[in-house]
Amino acid sequence: MFPKKYNLILTSFVVSLVLMIAKFIAYYMTYSSAILTDALESIINVVASAFAFYAVYLASQPRDLNHPYGHGKIEFFSAGLEGVLIVLASVFIIFHASEGLINPEPLMDLKIGLLVISLGVIINYLLGQSLENEGNTQSSPTLIADGKHLKLDAISGLILVVAVILVILTKIYWIDSLASIIFAMYMAWNGIKIIRKSIGGLMDETNDEVLEKVVNILKNNKKNEWIDIHNMRIQEYGSDIHIDCHLTLPKYWNLEKVHETVHEFEEILEDKFPSNVEIFIHTDPCMPECCHYCKVENCPIRQSAQTTTIDWNKVNLSLNQKHFTESI
């Protein structure tokens, strides 16, 4: 039995293949640029879904000697490839539709094409929403990108449905080409955004959404003995997350107590993420300068009273320094 994300990706591939064939048949019956636009977009859906299935499979493989952090980054590459295909298809569509805009030709059997595009709109949107929801649940860039792509295809179909209806009602055939060009530019912009996000993932760019989630988890589960957290860094390997941070603990604790606290810290974060979370914690002993924000009760080495509370936010926790300044 395949996991849910495999079933969704496989369904995306099969549905995209069937819709692609239907749309090309509709194009050869109508010679509509709008329908050709939708058909070309479906080619990308098929190729992207096939590679996405492989990417999700590879990302799920365990770490090995050659890939000590796992294979998850293939998901960012998969998403980037999908973005590139979207941009390339949009360029081809613009060139093709421009010819139709300059020399518009009568179109045939548009009602059949209208039916095919309308069915594609409904199917792609529902499937895309399912993929995106599952991708957000599992923090999978591949599923999110494939879902966004299918929803983009559904929006394109909706725009093209309107264009075809206008052509049927007005007999103004250049509307068909104009709608294709407008949507092709919208496609290109979305493709560029997908590429930008995938490059950010490959370059270990901080994901503010994930960072904010980690910070909120720590704030809501904060223990008095967690005197300070700093130098926190988060890396994403597809749906897997790697977290580094420095944790300041009372310096008079023995190693066993430190180990138990670190283990509890890790469990709190791991329980809040549906994907695999790997956490590396460097423990620091407290210093006299920490006393003014330390909340440990009955501390035998306290040199000054607690006078302030540090706001644990994504800026403070990411700084590579202890928080000695009382004004923070």
CATH top level of the largest domain is: Mainly Alpha
- Strand order of the biggest β-sheet: 1-2-3
Order of helices and strands: HHHHHHHEEHE
Just name the CATH architecture of the largest domain: Up-down Bundle
What is the third-level CATH name, the topology of the largest domain? Alpha-lytic protease prodomain-like
Distance between the amino and carboxyl termini = 53 Å
Based on Cα principal axes, name the global outline. elongated
Q: CATH homologous superfamily of the largest domain? A: Cation efflux protein transmembrane domain
What is the subunit organization of this protein? single chain
Count of folded domains:
2
Helix and strand composition category:
mainly alpha
Q: How large is the radius of gyration?
A: 27 Å
Describe the protein:
- The chain is mainly alpha-helical.
- It has 2 domains: 4-202, Alpha-lytic protease prodomain-like (Up-down Bundle); 208-293, Alpha-Beta Plaits, CATH 3.30.70.1350.
- Helix content is 61%, strand content 9%.
- The protein has 8 helices and 3 strands, in the order αααααααββαβ.
- It has a 3-stranded mixed beta sheet with strand order 1-2-3.
- A hairpin with a 2-residue loop joins strand 1 (228-237) and strand 2.
- Helix 3 runs parallel beside helix 5 (141-170).
- The longest helix has 30 residues, at 141-170.
- The chain is elongated, with a radius of gyration of 27 Å.
- The two termini are 53 Å apart.
Quick overview of this protein structure:
The chain has 328 residues and is mostly helical. It contains eight helices and three strands, in the order H-H-H-H-H-H-H-E-E-H-E.
